[in-house]
Amino acid sequence: MKRYRNLKIIFMALGLLLLNACDKDFEEINTNPNVPNTVTPDLLLPNIIRSTVNEVMGMSWGIGNIVIQQTAKIQFVNEDRYQWGEQNGIWNTMYTNMRNVNNVYTIAEKAGQSNYMGIALVMKSWMMSLVTDSYGDVPYTEATQGKSSVYFPKYDTQETIYNGILSDLSRANELFGSTAENVQGDILYGGDVEKWKKLANSLRLRYLMRVSNKRNVGPDMQAILNDPATSPIFEENDDNAALLYLPTVPNQFPLYTSRIGSFNEFRLSKTMADKLKEYNDPRLQVFARPTPASTGTATPEYVGVPNGLDDNAALQYNGGANFMSRIGNPYYIDGFGTPTQEQREIARGIIMTYAELQFILAEAAQKGLVTSGTAKEYYEQGIQASFEYFKQDLPAGYLAQPGVAFSPATALQQIGTQKWIALFYSGLEAWFDWRRTNYPELTPGISNVNGNRIPVRFIYPASEFSLNKENVEAAVARQGPNDINTKVWWDQ
Q: Where is the signal peptide (predicted)?
């Protein structure tokens, strides 16, 4: 018995020894040397930019181009008839990426890196504008604060959100260049801080114009224009916030990997085609392809499709698919080939362009909100910039022809129409702007199922009514019915 007792003691001692050995250096053994323990802003930025821009371009293809009648559908036509249901891509993508945007800001603030802080504020502002312009009142001040035990964020009013956006962009303008760190991981501007600063101020002008029906934004807009040294804005197309995609994977233009069948469901809208033909506008050849039946002939034809047709009428329009124009070559490469440099320069991921800014300033000047420059000058510069972006020469006499020649009596309509053309396939911005201005004048889709009304927002995700019921219902009570016809604050 004594021998067994001694063996038991020995085994217990060995067990304790082994247990201690297993615990020693436990953290070192279970740490992957190939995975960083800390994250820096340059590691987070590429995916923030890529994923958010790609989501916007995807939404442009599926909803934005259609609702604003730049394109139309000939198969699976629910979107074109306003039978939308939930559209959660913007919501999910922006809030998911907002966590990393906050991380970039926090990490950069601790490191004293003002340029990264500025980029974070610009991205946050753009992303939150997309969410609020799509849905209305949304979580903002308490968003993405789960780590601080805020699991049920309140929905802020759109007015509060826009005040925050404009404040953040102003702060970003102050931050840029105040420290000297080189910006890495910037796939939009390649680390050019001055271009980020121009974007911050150009976005300020966009968002000031967005809320211009709600308050006097003239002094704020004029203050930006009065001090170009401190508050620079876009000066040319080279300043465009437009993501240049790679010619091959992994970062191609999102549509390049679509199935040919999915691509063929979408055609040029008759609304856009008719307007471009009215103006003898060569951008038609960029936005669309000749009908398959006329391709390669001496007289190629460009035929648009009316929006909102039912399935049978859409597929049979004008004799069938061979007699309707598909979307232009820059936006889809048949056979998954390699796009040319010129095609890549056009099919970009758009945040904002110089042409858009010129039309914003044209409207501001026409309304007397700013006194720097004339509405006519800005308007014509916007047209010129759009032609240059789409690699087309401005035809002789284009600016002097009826409908295009600047006229104070119809200036706002002209500005809105040319801005709509320039915003072709640029995300949701054309839809947002049309809701504010009602230009160009659009007629609801022919066989729409929305009471002959063009939608003006997305409905809230159903998950919000399960997970954040009290707050989303408060927003609905304040804003109006949760449907696609309830106008957001700046549109009321």
A: 1-21
